[in-house]
Amino acid sequence: MAGSRSLRQGFKGHASRLTAPRQAILEFLSKSSKHMSAKEIYSSLHRSYPGMGLSTIYRTLDLLARMGIVTKLSLGDGQSRYELRSKKEEEHHHHLICTNCGKIINYSEFLDEELGLVKKTEDKLAKKYNFVIQDHNIEFLGICEKCRGK
Amino acid sequence: MAGSRSLRQGFKGHASRLTAPRQAILEFLSKSSKHMSAKEIYSSLHRSYPGMGLSTIYRTLDLLARMGIVTKLSLGDGQSRYELRSKKEEEHHHHLICTNCGKIINYSEFLDEELGLVKKTEDKLAKKYNFVIQDHNIEFLGICEKCRGK
DNA sequence: GTTCATGCAAAAGATTTGCACACAG
DNA sequence: CTGTGTGCAAATCTTTTGCATGAAC
Question: What pLDDT, in 10s, does the model give residues A13-28?
Answer without folding.
Answer: 455 788 889 999 999 9
